[in-house]
């Protein structure tokens, strides 16, 4: 056996978090139900870069993780809403220009606490964790700024309507290669923002959603999705608990 699973949060990019901590202090949370007004300019003073190579930032004012990417699929069945670029574009709507572990690190930095990933044995237990509201920003063919909730790009194949569930920060996990001793984040294989349940998912749906090809529940909502290769900005905002909201 070459690998085993490890789940210690302390393995999440300590160096990255230390770098981000040198940025400005976070400001009070805004209502996560309000779509984010995130500037297109990645150099905006409210954004702190989280990675030297990845196109991922923290919006410290709004407590959001901001990632750039592109549309990679407009038709067909789905297992993910979004995956890291170069992984599962054939079953994801958006390919993000960052690593999955960088998204995890960003969510931790703005105060989200990972829950638990889905379990199938001895019985099904849905993924748990704080709800993360996800928005997609882009410019249409006329140059007009657009933004929608990510759910609007995913269709429930049974109802014909947009995805009616929220994503939760399940947290994925690590596996250790016993030959090299290296720890590897499981979601790097593509399981970043999932619509089918995966024990390796960073963000998952808290409902039973099969990954079997003949049982896939969700498809791309083609009519709502811009052309392939359209550049997009995905904004993830952990939802504020009711008791934490200010009057």
Using brief descriptors, characterize the structure shown.
247 residues, mainly beta, three-stranded antiparallel sheet, 2 helices, globular, disordered N terminus, disordered C terminus
Would you kindly provide a written description of the structure presented here, covering whatever features stand out?
The chain is mainly β and 247 residues long. It has one domain (3-244). The protein is built from 2 helices and 16 strands. The strands form 3 sheets. Strands 2, 3, 4, 5, 6, 7, 8, 10, 13, 14 and 16 form an 11-stranded mixed β-sheet that branches. The termini are far apart. Mean pLDDT is 84; it is low at 1-8, 13-35 and 243-247.
Q: What structural class should be given to the helix and strand makeup?
A: mainly beta
Gyration radius over CA = 17 Å
- Average pLDDT across residues? 84
Instruction: Give the amount of beta strand, in percent.
Output: 25-35%
- Mass-distribution shape: globular
């Amino acid at each position: 056996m070459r690998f085993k699973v490890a789940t210690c949060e302390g393995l999440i990019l300590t160096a990255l978090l230390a770098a981000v901590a040198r940025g400005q202090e976070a400001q009070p949370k805004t209502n996560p139900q309000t779509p984010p007004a995130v500037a297109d300019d990645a150099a905006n003073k409210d954004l702190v870069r989280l990675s030297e190579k990845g196109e991922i930032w923290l919006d410290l004012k709004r407590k959001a993780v901001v990632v750039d990417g592109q549309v990679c699929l407009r038709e067909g069945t789905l297992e993910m809403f979004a995956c890291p670029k170069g992984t599962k574009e054939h079953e994801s709507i958006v390919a993000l220009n960052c690593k999955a572990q960088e998204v995890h690190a960003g969510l931790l930095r703005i105060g989200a606490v990972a829950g638990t990933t889905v379990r199938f044995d001895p019985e099904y237990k849905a993924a748990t964790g704080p709800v993360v509201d996800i928005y997609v920003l882009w410019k249409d063919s006329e140059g007009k700024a657009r933004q929608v909730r990510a759910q609007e790009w995913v269709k429930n194949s049974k109802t014909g309507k947009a995805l009616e569930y929220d994503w939760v920060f399940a947290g994925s996990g690590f596996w250790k290669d016993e030959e090299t001793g290296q720890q590897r984040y499981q979601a790097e294989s593509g399981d970043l923002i999932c619509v089918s349940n995966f024990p390796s998912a960073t963000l998952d749906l808290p409902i039973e959603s099969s990954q079997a090809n003949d049982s896939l529940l969700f498809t791309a909502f083609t009519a709502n999705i811009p052309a392939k290769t359209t550049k997009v900005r995905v904004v993830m905002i952990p939802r504020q608990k009711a008791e934490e909201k200010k009057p």
